[in-house]
Specification:
The structure holds 2 protein chains of 2 kinds. By secondary structure, chain A is mainly α. Chain A has a single domain, classed as MetI-like fold (Orthogonal Bundle). Chain A has 11 helices and no strands. Chain A starts with a helix and ends with a helix. Chain B is α/β, with parallel strands linked by helices. Chain B has 2 domains: about 140 residues, Rossmann fold; about 70 residues, no CATH class. In chain B, about 35% of the residues lie in helices and about 25% in strands. Chain B contains 7 helices and 9 strands, in the order E-E-E-H-E-E-H-H-H-E-H-E-H-E-E-H. In chain B, the strands form 2 sheets. A 6-stranded mixed beta sheet of chain B has the order 5-6-7-3-8-9, sandwiched between helices. In chain B, strands 2-1-4 form a 3-stranded antiparallel beta sheet, with helices on one face. In chain B, helix 2 packs across helix 3 and helix 2 runs parallel beside helix 4. Chain B is globular, with a radius of gyration of 17 Å. The mean pLDDT of chain B is about 90. The chains are: A mainly alpha, B alpha/beta. Chains A and B meet through helix 7 and helix 8 of A and helix 2 of B.
Chain lengths: ~230, ~220
């Protein structure tokens, strides 16, 4: 809070440039929360989504997982966020923090989409890859770990980058439960100064910069020799 | 060595195998001939355990290797890794010995220099050799080959025939499903013609000067 007060006080500078710099610093410092939410929810999305996808492919709890995925994909993210922040504490009697709530809500939402992306990747592999693994006596765990998932990950990587970009932008919804992320900070300045163009433009610039960064990393990974050499099927 | 007794298999109400019975002795080369949909591949898949017969029994007391029609090499692994991966998982196996064995098999099949390559740059014939080499890594007593010459040119088909004969001379029983009657007549000790899931005729091609024509006359 002390740091925020300091930043807010800096915004009281007189010149136009110093005002923009102060606004940029104040809004930009919200990227920490945005990245926390992004990294946390990607982690949950990958782990839970991966488990969902493999479990469904192995027909373990398939109906239950299908129901969960259907409900999560069929309801708005903002509703899920509000549910975890307002409704869940009413049922269980313990309130989670904004960051934890955001990570859980965005993570579970992402896991539904990641599991669908992985499902498509698994189903796009030739059935023969599973059959040859069986005929060579490869145990199921090793088959998934070393044969199936490496190929699936390479096939779905561009789609996964797309999901990451979507997730980054969705984290802006944390502003609705009071999270001081990039979006919320731009709204604070806008509400304080009755001026929307500059703070919202700064927020847009920051989000766009990070989207470009994610796309750049994605293209670099896709350009790696190992990835490029093995993307094509024999 | 391998006894197939009254095996039936249907898909969506269509009989693909209809009371198929077959005895396969050791060190022989048995060809399964027939038109597409005749049941050749399904019979091989039932033997390997990739399909469960609706009824009937398949008894064997030996190791079985399977060479898939479309090779099914692991695209993200080098040729050597393709060969070594599965055997090296078994408990008590020395990985160095495994690699040496794989190198020896690759050399033997004439593709030793391809060990570090990825499958996608190999030709059809080379992929077939790698698939064969991978199956040989488990020291099979019986090798099932599904359409081993599919998509290969005449010269490569000759190479594959010579390779399979060499493998057979090592004591490996080979069962080949193929629609290429000339290839089967050249290599097999016995050809079984399947039509609509039933065995129509069994011949020893060496006993017939016109084995291919004889088989064609029994096509449905």
């Amino acid at each position: 809070m002390r740091a925020e007060s300091c930043l807010l006080s800096k915004r009281s500078g007189t010149s136009f440039v110093s005002k923009i710099v102060a606004d940029f610093l104040f809004i930009g410092s919200g990227i920490v929360l945005t990245l926390e939410l992004l990294v946390g929810s990607i982690f949950i999305g990958l782990v839970v989504g991966g488990l969902f996808a493999v479990a469904r492919a192995c027909c373990i709890c398939k109906t239950a997982i299908n129901c969960i995925v259907s409900v999560v994909r069929g309801t708005p993210v903002i509703l899920q966020l509000s549910f975890f922040y307002f409704a869940v504490p009413q049922i269980f009697g313990c309130k989670l923090g904004i960051v934890l709530t955001g990570i859980i809500a965005f993570g579970i939402n992402s896991s539904a989409y990641v599991s669908e992306i992985l499902r498509a990747g698994i189903e796009s592999l030739p059935k023969g890859q599973f059959e040859v693994s069986r005929s060579l006596g490869i145990p199921a765990f090793h088959m998934w770990k070393d044969i199936i998932l490496p190929q699936v990950v390479m096939n779905i990587f561009p789609t996964f980058i797309n999901e990451t970009v979507t997730l980054l932008k969705e984290t802006a919804l944390v502003a609705t439960i009071g999270g001081m992320d990039v979006m919320r900070r731009s709204q604070v300045i806008a509400a304080e100064q009755y001026e929307y163009f500059i703070p919202l433009s700064i927020a847009a610039f920051i989000y766009y910069l990070f989207v470009l960064l994610i796309e750049f990393i994605g293209r670099k990974v896709e350009g790696l020799k190992l990835y490029a050499e093995n993307l094509q099927r024999p | 060595m391998l006894k197939i007794c009254n095996v039936r298999k249907s898909f969506n109400g269509v009989n693909v195998l209809d009371s198929v019975s077959l005895d396969i002795g050791s060190s022989s080369i048995v060809g399964l001939a027939g038109a597409s949909g005749g049941g050749k591949s399904t019979l091989l898949r039932c033997i390997q355990g990739l399909e469960v017969p609706d009824s009937g029994t398949i008894d064997y007391d030996c190791r079985i290797g399977f060479v898939f029609q479309d090779f099914q090499l692991f695209p993200h692994m080098t040729v050597l890794q393709n060969l070594v991966y599965a055997p090296a998982l078994k408990a008590g196996i020395d990985k160095k010995q495994c690699i040496a064995k794989a190198q020896a098999i690759l050399e033997d099949l004439g593709i030793g220099e391809k060990a570090a390559e990825y499958p996608r740059i190999l030709s059809g014939g080379q992929k077939q050799r790698v698939a064969l080499a991978r199956s040989l890594m488990i020291d099979p007593d019986v090798l099932l080959c599904d359409e081993p010459t599919s998509g290969l040119d005449v010269a490569t088909t000759e190479d594959v025939a010579a390779l399979l004969e060499r493998v057979n001379r090592l004591g490996v029983t080979i069962v080949i499903a193929s629609h290429d009657l000339d290839f089967l007549a050249q290599i097999s000790d016995r050809i079984v013609l399947l039509n609509r899931g039933k065995i129509v005729i069994e011949i020893n091609p060496k006993d017939h000067s016109d084995a291919v024509e004889h088989l064609k006359s029994h096509y449905g």
